């Protein structure tokens, strides 16, 4: 390993504690769906770096493209000129985007994509306010108005959520205040909950009826994770045609890059100088992104995400109804490989922790997979869409009793 276990322990104490970290693992390498740690563990990575390495860790074609780009140019600064790979990426992305969107801005992080989409919406509408949905996560940068996301498992039906949005306008906001309503088609950090298709359409129509724009934040759902390239353009959601679409994470397999796609008239509301960023649309990231798009298409990863996601949820539902779960799994939901498992109210923190501990390769359960808790009782499972690298070993059964094992065998031999 590049970092010895001793020095890794020492330098950890120099890292700011403001980052909520799920594990204490130190990673040395990643290949396909697996990551290796300084302790010599090989773990099936269900987190994909929170929906980033959709092509698997260190896909050889993406790495080769990035290495080749290093020999050409790494940084050319957005305010100085274009670079070839940005233009190539734009040409690659354009036919993949919802058909109403024809203009792209590149940034570096998801938060930047969201922030710049809001900047454009404000410039275009000449209004200021922004409405977001409770549980939504759009980065760590700005102030907003919050309204409930439709979350049937938590008693919030789509009708209730829509009524709350209407009520928010009546009580607090004025039509002339709100520039945009921003929504994740599938709630990410808030618990992997897909919005019903009808709800997304209602939100779009409501926004337009108030002269506000609809921003789809597909930072986490984009690039195949939900079983379609973009959720807002999928068979499941239909042709939503958002006014602005935010992308990041899966766009470049882990190289920092984000983008906002919109209509020319909206983008042009921002005069030169209003948008930018030193590393925005970095050449290395764009080269990786061009190859990422080819790999996603040519290796059938979108379809794989849809098929594997259905299989994952079927099996999780089997476990949910089996003796193993003892009624502790309340809900299994998701789209594609963006799948969430939520504990029932009866579950104690100990059950939650037991699964996480087992999954994190502690307590001897080395062959587990890393999972991400996204809200207090939810675990998200979003393993790479990498098709060749499916889990080959079975669950470590050391801590299970005979009844549990029988039940597991039935749910997935
Ligand atoms: N939007 C969504 C839906 C996200 O999930 C995230 C990150 N989890 C962001 C925006 C912010 O992205 P970044 O961390 O790259 O700034």
The tally of beta strands, per DSSP, is 17
Average pLDDT value? 85
| Largest β-sheet summary | 7 strands, mixed
Q: How many structural domains? A: 2
Shape: globular
Examine the coordinates and then state which fold CATH places here, giving the name of the CATH topology of the largest domain: Aspartate Aminotransferase, domain 2
Q: Supply Rg.
A: 22 Å
The CATH level-2 architecture of the largest domain is identified as: 3-Layer(aba) Sandwich
Strand content: 15-25%
GO molecular function, one term: pyridoxal phosphate binding
Protein name: 4-aminobutyrate aminotransferase
Keywords: Aminotransferase, Pyridoxal phosphate, Transferase
Enzyme class: transferase
Describe the structure.
- The protein is α/β, with parallel strands linked by helices and 413 residues long.
- The protein folds into two domains: 5-55 and 305-411, Aspartate Aminotransferase, domain 1, CATH 3.90.1150; 60-298, Aspartate Aminotransferase, domain 2 (3-Layer(aba) Sandwich).
- It has twelve helices and 17 strands.
- It has helices at 5-12, 48-51, 60-70, 84-93, 110-125, 158-171, 197-209, 264-267, 283-298, 301-321, 349-359, 402-411; strands at residues 27-31, 34-37, 42-45, 103-107, 129-133, 145-147, 178-183, 186-187, 193-194, 213-217, 244-247, 258-262, 329-335, 338-343, 369-370, 372-373, 378-381.
- The strands form four sheets. A seven-stranded mixed sheet has the order 4-12-11-10-7-5-6. A four-stranded mixed sheet has the order 1-2-3-15, covered by helices on one side.
- Helix 3 packs antiparallel against helix 9 (283-298) and helix 4 packs parallel to helix 9.
- The longest helix has 21 residues, at 301-321.
- It is globular and about 65 Å long.
- Mean pLDDT is 85; it is low at 360-378 and 382-394.
- The structure holds 4'-deoxy-4'-aminopyridoxal-5'-phosphate.
- 4'-deoxy-4'-aminopyridoxal-5'-phosphate (PMP) binds next to helix 5.
- Belongs to the class-III pyridoxal-phosphate-dependent aminotransferase family.
- Its EC number is 2.6.1.19.
- One of its GO terms (molecular function) is identical protein binding.
């Amino acid at each position: 390993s590049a970092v010895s276990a001793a020095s890794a322990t020492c330098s950890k104490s120099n890292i700011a504690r403001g980052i909520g970290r799920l594990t204490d693992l130190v990673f040395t390498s990643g290949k396909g769906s697996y990551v290796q740690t300084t302790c010599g563990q090989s773990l099936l990575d269900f987190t994909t770096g929170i929906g980033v390495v959709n092509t698997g860790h260190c896909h050889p074609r993406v790495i080769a493209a990035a290495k080749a780009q290093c020999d050409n140019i790494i940084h050319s600064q957005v305010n100085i000129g274009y670079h070839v790979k940005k233009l190539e990426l734009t040409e690659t992305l354009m036919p993949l985007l919802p058909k109403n969107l024809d203009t792209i801005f590149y940034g570096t992080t998801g938060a930047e994509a969201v922030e710049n989409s809001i900047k454009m919406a404000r410039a275009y509408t000449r209004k200021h306010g922004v409405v977001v949905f409770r549980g939504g996560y759009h980065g760590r940068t700005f102030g907003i108005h919050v309204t409930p996301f439709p979350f049937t498992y938590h008693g919030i039906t789509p009708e209730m959520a829509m009524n709350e949005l209407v009520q928010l306008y009546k009580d607090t906001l004025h039509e002339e205040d709100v520039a945009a309503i921003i929504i994740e088609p599938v709630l990410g950090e808030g618990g992997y909950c897909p919005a019903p298709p009808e709800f997304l359409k209602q939100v779009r129509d409501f926004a337009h009826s108030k002269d506000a724009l609809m921003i789809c934040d597909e930072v986490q759902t984009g690039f195949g994770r939900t079983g379609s390239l973009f959720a807002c353009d999928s068979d499941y959601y239909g042709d939503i045609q958002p006014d602005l679409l935010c992308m990041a994470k899966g766009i470049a397999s882990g190289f920092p890059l984000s983008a906002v796609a919109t209509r020319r008239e909206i983008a042009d509301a921002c005069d030169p100088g209003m948008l930018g960023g030193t590393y925005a649309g970095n050449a290395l990231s764009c080269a990786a992104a061009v190859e990422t798009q080819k790999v996603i298409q040519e290796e059938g990863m979108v379809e794989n995400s849809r098929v594997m996601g259905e299989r994952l949820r079927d099996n999780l539902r089997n476990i949910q109804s089996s003796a193993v779960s003892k009624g502790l799994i309340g809900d299994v939901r998701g789209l594609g490989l963006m799948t969430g498992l939520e504990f029932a109210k009866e579950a104690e923190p100990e059950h939650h922790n037991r699964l996480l501990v087992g999954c994190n390769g502690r307590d001897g359960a080395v062959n587990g997979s890393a999972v991400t808790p996204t809200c207090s009782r939810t675990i998200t499972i979003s393993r790479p869409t990498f098709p060749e690298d499916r889990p080959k070993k079975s669950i470590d059964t050391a801590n299970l009793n005979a009844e549990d094992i029988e039940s597991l065998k039935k749910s997935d031999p």
